[in-house]
């Protein structure tokens, strides 16, 4: 692993930068998670306390409303008159029942209003009560009831015509305004189910609950119905310290921890206590943890992508240079690269381009010098032959043959003279297409005389290309190759076809024969020789000298090298052959007009 990192600058920089990015991100994520969990818990407690305050306000409004109505009824003249008369007045009775009914009709939380006279007059009810638990409570709390101007009873049951109901009552004594003697008792009964409704409709936390306890710390609403009228210390023995008007505590009930919020109603000494399961915080904290982890993961992936992108952007030129310098072939053209920056990497690429350009120019100069050396060798070879002497000798033989009336010898000598004259041609490298074709025809004529009835040759040359310039001595070696390696090895007569096609920007030549062809192995071998010539582009080395010993188609290789030397890599020979069918050789050169 250490060696794997050591071999790449990109890997080392990536690891270093990623480590520098990951560590702060993880630290920030941990701190953010802790802050978020603390804020989540504080928000939940704050929201719960606000809900408790809203419940408290509703209950306080109900209590205030009941106390105000009780004061109104105590001071009402008809009530004073009814309780002060010893004899019953049916009209006043009906009128007071209507008044009490009107007061309680619009108040769902009022289960009953009762006025109990001390005299013999009938008790006033808004609801028909067949059995009430109030009498035992009045006896139980007689001392408290008589000494206080008002008294809130514990939760108790009443049996009405509508069924059994649980109520909490406000009890006030009714006294005479003048004599201040006790005339009777006023009782406002609150429906416990309506108070319960206030607690459940407030939208308390899921899985949590709220209970309402009275001044004696007994549960009068909320929670489980089995808890009603039980002491809080019996239901929640681990709950302590709710001595303030409002606050926050905690308790473990069974195996479930709860956060406890409480808020008091000082007017009556009641207290609302809300229980929020701690697991709600844990679920919320789990969500916060998931969000934090996903956020950090996305940030890490983004950071990794940016780091990889910028590192590649910086190191990619170096990687490309390293790759090409590592696999550089001295015989191929050295590529250059666009300089896209002015920093140190850009200066390095610029220096590489300068070096590449210098090497290319030196290579071209070496190739030019080698080509000039070859041209000089050819010219030296031509200079060794005395053209005039050779032409005059051939001309003499031509006339002697004519004088002896041997026309075939005369034509053969004439064709040989033209053939040599074109081949030497004072060392000229180029000629027009018409001269190249005539030279090929002379060669074919001489060979046809030497090897009668062995082959036929046909030329199909586009008339429009006859005056175009081309490198000379290209067609004759290809015809010679077809004759020697294809036709002469065949038992029957063969055919050679020479095509010349003029195209828009170039000229295409094809030499095709119906000889014996080549098998796959031989064809592959010749393709390898041509490829080797293509790589060297005519430059000799010791390796070339060794390869020359196994060259089997020197004529083809020589033509191929000359094409590459004068026309470039796209002008080499293309060889196709099928065993028993024949061979097809093609080359394409640029279209150039003669002067």
Automatic annotation (TrEMBL):
Q: Which InterPro entries match?
A: Bact_2-comp_sensor_kinase (IPR050640), HAMP_dom (IPR003660), HATPase_C_sf (IPR036890), HATPase_dom (IPR003594), Sig_transdc_His_kin_internal (IPR010559)
MF terms (GO), sorted A to Z: protein histidine kinase activity
Q: Where in the cell is it found?
A: Cell membrane
**Superkingdom to which the source organism belongs:** Bacteria
Transmembrane helix as UniProt keyword = yes
- Enzyme Commission number(s) from the entry: 2.7.13.3
**Transmembrane domains' residue ranges:** 287-311
Q: Which keywords does this chain's UniProt record carry? A: Cell membrane, Kinase, Membrane, Phosphoprotein, Transferase, Transmembrane, Transmembrane helix
Record has Transmembrane helix as a keyword? yes
For this protein, the record's PROSITE patterns field holds:
HAMP
* Main location (coarse class): membrane
Q: Could you tell me which residue ranges the HAMP domain spans? A: 312-364
Give membrane topology per the record: Multi-pass membrane protein
Q: What is this protein called?
A: Two-component system sensor histidine kinase YesM
Organism the protein comes from: Paenibacillus qinlingensis
Query: What lineage is this protein's organism placed in?
Result: Bacteria, Bacillati, Bacillota, Bacilli, Bacillales
């Amino acid at each position: 692993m250490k060696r794997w990192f050591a071999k790449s600058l990109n890997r080392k920089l990536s690891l270093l930068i990623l480590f520098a990015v990951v560590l702060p991100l993880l630290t920030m994520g941990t701190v953010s998670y802790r802050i978020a969990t603390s804020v989540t818990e504080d928000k939940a407690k704050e929201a719960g306390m606000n809900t408790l305050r809203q419940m408290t306000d509703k209950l306080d409004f109900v209590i205030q409303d009941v106390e105000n109505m009780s004061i109104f009824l105590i001071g009402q003249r008809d009530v004073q008159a009814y309780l002060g008369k010893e004899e019953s007045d049916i009209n006043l009775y009906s009128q007071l029942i209507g008044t009490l009914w009107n007061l309680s009709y619009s108040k769902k939380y009022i289960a009953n209003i009762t006025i109990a006279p001390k005299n013999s007059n009938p008790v006033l009810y808004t609801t028909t009560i067949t059995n009430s638990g109030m009498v035992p409570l009045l006896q139980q709390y007689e001392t408290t009831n008589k000494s206080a101007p008002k008294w809130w009873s514990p939760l108790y049951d009443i049996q009405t015509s509508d069924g059994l109901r649980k109520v909490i009552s406000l009890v006030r004594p009714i006294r005479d305004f003048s004599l201040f003697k006790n005339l009777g008792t006023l009782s406002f009964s609150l429906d416990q189910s309506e108070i319960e409704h206030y607690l459940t409709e407030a939208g308390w936390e899921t899985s949590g609950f709220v209970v309402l306890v009275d001044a004696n710390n007994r549960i009068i609403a909320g929670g489980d119905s089995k808890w009603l009228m039980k002491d809080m210390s019996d239901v929640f023995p681990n709950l302590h310290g709710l001595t303030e008007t409002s606050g926050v505590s905690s308790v473990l009930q069974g195996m479930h921890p709860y956060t406890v919020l409480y808020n008091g109603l000082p007017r009556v000494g009641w207290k609302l206590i809300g229980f929020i399961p701690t697991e709600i915080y844990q679920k919320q904290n789990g969500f916060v943890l998931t969000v934090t982890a996903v956020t950090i993961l996305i940030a890490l992936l983004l950071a990794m992508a940016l780091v990889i992108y910028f590192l590649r952007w910086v190191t990619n030129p170096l990687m490309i240079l390293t790759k090409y310098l590592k696999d550089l072939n001295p015989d191929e053209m050295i590529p250059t690269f666009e300089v896209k920056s002015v920093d140190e990497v850009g200066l390095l690429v610029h220096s590489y381009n300068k070096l590449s350009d210098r090497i290319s120019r030196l290579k071209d100069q070496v190739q030019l010098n080698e080509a000039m050396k070859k041209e000089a060798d050819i010219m030296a070879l031509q200079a060794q032959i005395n053209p005039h002497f050779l032409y005059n000798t051939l001309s003499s033989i031509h006339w002697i043959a004519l004088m002896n009336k041997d026309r075939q010898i005369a034509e053969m000598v004439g064709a040989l003279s033209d053939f040599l004259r074109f081949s030497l041609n004072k060392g000229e490298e180029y000629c027009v297409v018409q001269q190249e074709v005539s030279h090929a025809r002379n060669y074919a004529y001489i060979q046809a005389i030497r090897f009668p009835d062995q082959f036929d040759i046909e030329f199909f040359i586009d008339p429009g290309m006859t005056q175009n310039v081309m490198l000379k001595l290209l067609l004759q070696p290809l015809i010679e190759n077809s004759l020697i390696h294809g036709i002469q090895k065949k038992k029957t007569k063969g055919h050679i076809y020479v095509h010349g096609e003029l195209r828009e920007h170039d000229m295409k030549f094809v030499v095709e024969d119906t000889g014996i062809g080549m098998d796959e192995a031989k064809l592959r071998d010749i393709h390898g020789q041509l490829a080797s010539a293509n790589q060297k582009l005519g430059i000799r080395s010791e390796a070339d000298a060794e390869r020359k010993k196994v060259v089997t188609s020197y004529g083809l290789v020589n033509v191929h090298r000359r094409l590459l030397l004068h026309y470039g890599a796209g002008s080499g020979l293309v060889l196709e052959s099928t065993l028993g069918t024949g061979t097809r050789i093609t080359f394409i050169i640029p279209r150039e007009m003669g002067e």
